[in-house]
Amino acid sequence: MPVLNVAFIGSEDFARKLAKKGDTRDIESYVFKEGSGSKARTISLLRPLKYPDSIRPLLSVLNVSKVGVIEISALDSSLGEILVSFASAGIEKGIAIINPEEGNWIDVEQIELIFSQLKLDWKIYQSMPENHEIRELLFDMMDQTDIIGTSLILPVDQHFVVQGIGLVGIGYVQSGQIKKHDTIEVISLGEKGIVRSLQVMDEDVEVAHSGDRVGVAIRNLREEALHKGCIIVHPNSEVVVKHNISSFILNKAPFQKKIIKKDDIIHVSADMQFVVGRVTSISENNIKIKWENPLWVRSEQNNQIILAQLDAKPMRIIGTAKSMVPE
After folding, report:
1. Do residues 24 and 106 both lie within one domain?
2. Same domain, yes or no: 15 and 137
3. Chain centre to alpha carbon of residue 63
4. Are 191 and 24 in contact (CB under 8 A)?
């Protein structure tokens, strides 16, 4: 069943009108299913909580989403950071609805100019459209969305032991697919296990595809092998590369004026990882960072690696890393 993960910025009331509320963690999910059997398709709205106080939930949502929906209630610094985040994550398609708070006014032309400057090819509504119109437009975007990568990349964000089932890891399939009875490897420790069963949206399945949020029951694996941010792959796939120190070209985020300096603390967000590091050297636009914990980077680097500085005001998004190599 195809699933479109949507980064959703807006009110809970608006989300509930579009889909049924599901899990709540640092991220709220809202699910809308249409059709049945081979024709079934699903929209999964992912709403980051604690933003703007914490940027990590927003970055996690952007790691797994292909398109966006934003309810614009005010033209402020938070909106600017949100739009820059979407542009940095490469989410070029989406829906923006201008819905100002009572008594406020938002300049539509200014909103359109910002989207144009960020090269975001989004549908902008000047008033709230019908719910079915939003869903249909999202389904159209699903048909236009390419699934990147064929090798399995499954970051784990939750794990627990279930009586009668055993160890279960939960996360979004970022690339490829995972099947029942597959041999899998947790790359941080190199430990292997066997997939006992899979669940997607509370249904047992034989295979989970890119975009699915899946629960993986694993046998022959220690509970200690799983932790938040670890990544499951197929053994010997070499789909990700370990970085203790990275050198890369910085693509500075739009409107970001801050200049990175030696000894600055930088956070990186990629494939549901959120790793902190310190800048050890800078040469023109080439930056070297030593990471506090290992960072796992796709060997093909076909995803966006977002850099943030948590004390940067008013824009915490620094940019993206290009041509990242380990040292």
Report:
1. yes
2. yes
3. 2
4. no
pTM of the model: 0.94
**DSSP letter (8 states) at residue 259:** P
Q: Which domain holds residue 215?
A: 154-233
Of residues 307, 251, 304, the one with CA closest to residue 276: 307
Residues 129 and 31 in one domain: yes
End-to-end alpha-carbon separation of the chain, Å?
A: 41
Contacts of 185 (CB under 8 A, 6+ apart): 191, 192, 232, 233, 234, 235
Residues 137 and 165 both lie in one domain: no
Q: What is the C-alpha separation between 125 and 109, in angstroms, rounded?
A: 12
How would you write 42-76 as a 3-class SS string? EEEEEEECCCCCCCHHHHHHHHHCCEEEEEECCCC
Helix, strand, or coil here: 222? coil
Rama region for 27: left / alpha / beta (φ>0; ψ in -120 to 50; rest): beta
Amino acid (1-letter code) at residue 109: E
Q: Give the CATH number for residue 222.
A: 2.40.30.10
In this structure, what token pair is assigned to residue 282?
């800078």
Q: 30-65: per-residue pLDDT in tens?
A: 999 998 877 889 999 999 999 999 999 999 999 999
Residue where a domain stops, chosen among 183, 216, 233 = 233
Looking at the structure, do residues 135 and 50 belong to the same domain, yes or no? yes
Residue 10 in any domain: the answer is yes
Domain C-terminal end among 213, 233, 253 = 233
Q: Read off the pLDDT of residues 103-156 as tens digits, 9 standing for 90 and up.
A: 889 999 999 999 999 999 999 999 999 999 999 999 999 877 765 568 999 999
For residue 13, report the phi and psi dihedrals to the nearest 5 degrees. Answer: -60, -45
- Note whether 47 and 28 are within 8 A (CB): yes
Domain count, the chain: 3
Assess whether 193 and 301 both reside in one domain.
no
The helix (run of H) or strand (run of E) holding residue 6 is: strand 3-9
